[in-house]
């Protein structure tokens, strides 16, 4: 199991390392690259996943509710601590709340629990993404209007994908294939851009990065553990919630910080060290899931 987990996590660091190596000798226009990713590739990926996978969303209402509680509850739990430690909540809290449910969570959950976990993995991914581009953007800029958020490509793609999913509207295979191919660009591109930005990290903030690597999974688990027993979740859904709660910060936090110009170097440090910490956290979480929550046949 540890070997499988490492096989999932190590490509993340390899691609980021390639970005750092390239950025050391070149000066790519990362801001334009990130804008292209946020406005085209990520929305296409979200729509393609929702429209193609056809997750039976009605059967996962309680899981979606629990995922919402984990995301929002993490911020509420850590907000007083951030104030006490005099950390900028706009920089520190979003990476603690919005985790790597996409490029790490979905493949990790399917690897751990099999193809039957895919609908649950997609549901928690949807929840994280929609909250990130609604509550998360409001946290960064309270003056951000609801209409502006609804017009964002990734939100429009999520709503359109949900509509297709719920209606059961069949889409041409060639269209979905093209969307999957373009959407698949976003994950390595996010990681590559992160690696380039890592060259600008101020390592004097390494203590904050380590603090985040501990608090991100811890705050999620504090919320998730009681919900696993209080809500009517089956064993697979409970296991998915447990892993979801312990995931490290999403790479997307860095892209958003880049767009809003909110210390992207510090956010990149939180994301990198948090994902490095997952090399320890995720094996322990999966071991707990298999031991006490979900026992595959």
Automatic annotation (TrEMBL):
The keyword Transmembrane helix applies. Pfam families: Mem_trans. GO terms for cellular component: membrane. Keywords: Cell membrane, Membrane, Transmembrane, Transmembrane helix, Transport. It is a multi-pass membrane protein. It comes from the Bacteria. GO terms for biological process: transmembrane transport. The chain crosses the membrane at residues 60-79, 91-114, 120-140, 152-172, 178-198, 210-230, 236-256, 268-295. Its main location: membrane. It is found in: Membrane. InterPro entries: Mem_transp_PIN-like (IPR004776). PANTHER family: AUXIN EFFLUX CARRIER FAMILY PROTEIN (PTHR36838), SLR1864 PROTEIN (PTHR36838:SF1). This is AEC family transporter. It comes from Vreelandella sedimenti. The lineage of its organism: Bacteria, Pseudomonadati, Pseudomonadota, Gammaproteobacteria, Oceanospirillales.
